[in-house]
Write a structure and sequence with these properties.
The protein is an alpha/beta fold and 375 residues long. It has two domains: 6-132 and 288-343, Response regulator (Rossmann fold); 140-266, Rossmann fold (3-Layer(aba) Sandwich). Helix content is 40%, strand content 17%. Strand 8, helix 9 and strand 9 (262-263) form a beta-alpha-beta unit. The radius of gyration is 21 Å and the shape is globular. Bound molecules: beta-D-glucopyranose (BGC). Beta-D-glucopyranose binds at residues 42, 44, 118-119, 166, 170, 172, 210, 240, 242, 266-267.
């Protein structure tokens, strides 16, 4: 592989300037992109990995794609190998951002620029962050609950709710939870929403590794401890689809009441969309990861070409979807703003799933009404 000139990019300085000019890379097939995804066991990352690989290869780049089985040590090794293989850029969706600090210093020493993909790694070695507006994901879940139950007009009526959040090692998880909690906490304070388990802080409701089984077992325990006497569960606020799947399983196996519980989610995983069709999950917040890959490719191209990267990339790229350039919301551990491209999430329910997911070409629908990711 032909070596190309490298990018020397100090994210700290560039963040302060708000716009970034990079030095030039040679173009095309000799330029190699290392893509590190967390795991194939959580559905969405298979889609992300595949979209990223296809799009970078179609643009003429070589791609090295790794999945690290949700093991932080393995992801460090995988990234070290890509650095040794001479990749010209790294695109990383971290399992645990903090565990990557040292390997990212190695990338930085080798002048390999890093795009933090979907989950922020709070290191100054990261040049840019590409994601969805994570706080809004949670906000949409909270608003769905508020509006569906018409909490503003509940009067004396009360509803029982339980929360299930994501992996504490994932920087996104707190944003999702806070987005939802900020919408719902006024109703908890007013007594309209009641949390029988009393578990309302992130640490109590978090789900390590976003595990379906862990979410299921925790909900089974909650149901046994607080609902076995016939107490009605009205809402299971789940941060994403892998946890919602476990919570729905627990409700099915361990809850005696009728199954009209509002269950939220995120991602549009195949099994969860089936649950939406079957009425076992009420909504999912859909994030078009194909578009997240498009933004990543265009950003990488601009960086490799030595083009100035700022909000002008949005217009120059002609994307047909909404994306904002944000230099204030996300910070590295050193307190420097990480310039971010943030896409817009959307609510999908049984009523709009064909319009949002099938008509747009992301999924196909079979004769029984179930959705399957389009090839
Ligand atoms: C992603 C979510 C996903 C979760 C578990 C988060 O970082 O943003 O889309 O559900 O990880 O895979």
């Amino acid at each position: 592989m032909k070596k190309v000139s490298k990018l020397a990019l100090a994210a700290a300085t560039v963040a302060a300037l708000g716009a970034v000019t990079t030095t030039c890379f040679a173009e095309g097939a000799s330029t190699k992109i290392g893509i590190a995804m967390p795991t194939q066991s959580l559905e969405r990352w298979n889609r992300d990995g595949s979209y990223l690989q296809k799009q970078f290869e179609a643009a003429g780049y070589e791609v090295e794609l790794t999945y690290s089985d949700n093991e932080t040590d393995q992801q460090v090794n995988d990234i070290q190998n890509m650095i040794s293989d001479g990749v010209n850029m790294l695109v990383i969706a971290a399992i645990d951002g903090e565990s990557l600090n040292t390997v990212l210093e190695e990338a930085s020493a080798a002048n390999i620029p890093v795009i933090s993909y979907d989950r922020l790694i709070k290191s100054d070695a990261v040049s840019y962050y590409v994601s969805f507006d994570n706080y809004t994901v949670g906000k949409l879940q909270g608003e769905y609950v508020r509006d569906t139950l018409d909490l503003d007009n509940a009067g004396d009526k009360t509803y029982n709710i339980e929360f299930t959040a994501g992996d504490p090692a994932d920087n996104n998880a707190g944003y999702f939870f806070n987005g939802a909690y900020d919408v719902l906490s006024p109703y908890i304070e007013a007594g309209t929403l009641v949390v029988p388990s009393g578990q309302t802080d992130f640490d109590s409701v978090a789900t390590p590794a976003w595990s379906t089984d862990t979410a299921m077992e925790r909900m089974q325990n909650i149901l046994a401890s607080y609902y076995a006497d016939g107490t009605v569960l009205d809402v299971a606020l789940c941060s994403n689809d892998s946890t919602a799947l476990g919570v729905a399983q627990a409700i099915e196996s361990d809850y005696a009441g009728d199954n009209s519980i509002l269950v939220t989610g995120q991602d549009g995983d195949e099994a969860n969309l089936a649950n939406v069709v079957d009425g076992k999950q009420s909504m999912t917040v859909y994030k078009a990861v194909a578009n997240e890959a498009v933004v990543t490719l265009d950003l990488a191209k601009a960086m490799l070409d030595g083009t100035t990267v700022d909000e002008s990339l949005i217009e120059a790229s002609g994307w047909e979807f909404d994306c904002s350039y944000d230099t204030t919301s996300y910070e590295t551990s050193e307190g420097h703003a990480c310039p971010s491209f943030l896409l817009v999430p959307d609510v999908v329910t049984k009523d709009n799933m064909v319009e949002k997911l099938v008509d747009t070409g992301y999924y196909t629908q079979d004769a029984d009404g179930y959705l399957h990711p389009a090839e």
